[in-house]
Design a protein that fits this description.
The complex is a heterodimer of chains A (about 140) and B (about 160). By secondary structure, chain A is of the alpha+beta class. Chain A has helices at about 5-15, 20-25, 25-30, 60-80, and strands at about 30-35, 40-45, 50-55, 60, 90-95, 105-115, 120-125, 135-140. In chain A, β1 (about 30-35) and β2 (about 40-45) form a beta hairpin. Chain A is globular and about 45 Å long. The chains are: A alpha+beta (about 140), B alpha+beta (about 160).
């Protein structure tokens, strides 16, 4: 039986994250997929009504942005590192910069340090303009 | 736990029925004890983050803690007003046991004229033995057409 680690290996070698995303129920619940743009991996959270946190503004629930940011940290880590087990989040710190509009949201993660036991990433979420991110996260992942 | 059933019911209208994502997760306010507010997240296979172990995704835990911390600000504020999360840090001390309801308790321990400071924990049975800890700050009286708890309770914003 194919495991999520097999799917992660496939994503790392072929660049196709479909099987990995499909293997993780929460990513399907959020509607997160991975696209390639200008040589980078971009997480895409397609807008859906169940992601709304404030229907009057309206605005995305902050938890969905945190989920997207953390997920993209994991996927970027798996794309760059061969691991024996899926990474585990040690700490996640999210700064909310603007309210998330009811539209598709993108996230790009950058590895700040890849260590033997811990990988540290910085992740930005944006909608219209990447230079004006709506949320940012620092994530420490246990990788070994 | 000491609790005001009417307040719990009112908060459930505001934080579950009114907020689509809280409703999608099945979040329920189960207790308000003084300034401490407790939310429950029922087990849901769709929230699994590690398919081999069946452990919940951190995003579901973070969302539970964000919602709980935010709700606790409303319990603290004398004058309900729109709020927005400024930042939220979650320390994952361990992994949540699988196939169990998860709870979170939060308390807004300090407010200034513009910011609320909150601490929260996520646990299974005992809040003194959390598997995740949250620290959050919220901006108060945020601009825009944000909804107040008052408006929600009066039903003016309910579809």
């Amino acid at each position: 039986m194919s495991t999520s680690l097999d799917a992660a290996r496939e994503a790392r070698t072929t660049g196709d994250f479909t099987a990995l995303v499909h293997a993780i129920p929460y990513l399907e619940f959020l509607g997160v997929t991975v696209e390639h743009r200008e040589g980078r991996r971009v997480g895409v959270m397609k807008f859906a009504e169940h992601l709304v946190g404030n229907p009057t503004l309206p605005a995305l629930h902050g938890g969905t942005l945190a989920g997207l940011l953390e997920s993209m940290a994991h996927l970027e880590c798996l794309a760059q590192t061969e691991v024996k087990q899926l990474p585990k989040t040690i700490t996640l710190t999210v700064d909310y910069l603007k309210s998330g509009k009811p539209k598709d949201t993108y996230a790009v993660a950058r590895v700040l340090k890849s260590g033997r036991r811990v990988t540290t990433l910085h992740v930005l979420a944006f909608q219209d303009d990447e230079r004006a991110p709506i949320a940012a996260a620092t994530v420490h992942l246990k990788v070994g | 736990m000491a609790s005001d059933p009417q307040l719990v019911e009112q908060l459930n209208v505001a934080f579950r029925e009114f907020v689509p994502h809280n409703k999608a997760l099945g979040l329920t306010v189960v207790d308000v004890d003084g300034l401490k507010l407790t939310l429950a997240l029922p087990w849901n296979d769709r929230l699994i983050g590690d398919p081999e172990s069946g452990v919940l995704h951190g995003g579901a835990i973070t969302t539970l803690l964000d919602a709980c911390c935010g709700a606790s600000v409303y319990v603290r504020l004398q004058d309900p007003q729109p709020i927005a999360t400024l930042d939220l840090r979650v320390d994952f001390l361990g992994r949540a046991p699988t196939r169990r309801e998860v709870r979170a308790t939060a308390e807004c321990h300090h407010v200034t004229s513009s910011v609320a400071f909150v601490r929260g924990v996520a646990f299974i049975d005992d809040p003194a033995k959390p598997f995740a800890i949250a620290t959050a700050t919220f901006a108060l009286s945020t601009q825009g057409r944000a909804v107040t708890l008052d408006q929600v309770l009066k039903g003016s914003e309910l579809a």
